[in-house]
């Protein structure tokens, strides 16, 4: 086991990405390597990201709101 100072912390976000302390290198199933020097990297777990293997928040449910310009007073 590597020394504690060499360990990387990974946090799994329910319904969201895995957050990995960076910098990291990620290898895709196709064999491509993606590098990120950020201090925390969001790794896609749902495969909906257009930037896979990096998360672009595509996992979030899209809610369309209708704004008709009126406000209710109460």
From TrEMBL:
It holds the Pfam family zf-CDGSH. Keywords: 2Fe-2S, Iron, Iron-sulfur, Metal-binding. This is CDGSH iron-sulfur domain-containing protein. The keyword Disulfide bond does not apply. Residues 21-65 form the Iron-binding zinc finger CDGSH type domain. It comes from Amycolatopsis rhabdoformis. InterPro entries: FeS-contain_CDGSH-typ, MitoNEET_CISD.
């Amino acid at each position: 086991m590597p020394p504690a100072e060499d360990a990387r912390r990974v946090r799994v976000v329910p319904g969201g990405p895995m957050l990995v302390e960076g910098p990291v290198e990620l290898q895709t199933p196709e064999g491509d390597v993606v590098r990120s020097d950020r201090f925390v990297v969001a790794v896609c777990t749902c495969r909906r990201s257009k930037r896979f293997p990096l998360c672009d928040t595509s996992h979030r449910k899209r809610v369309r709101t209708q704004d008709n310009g009126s406000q209710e007073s109460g």
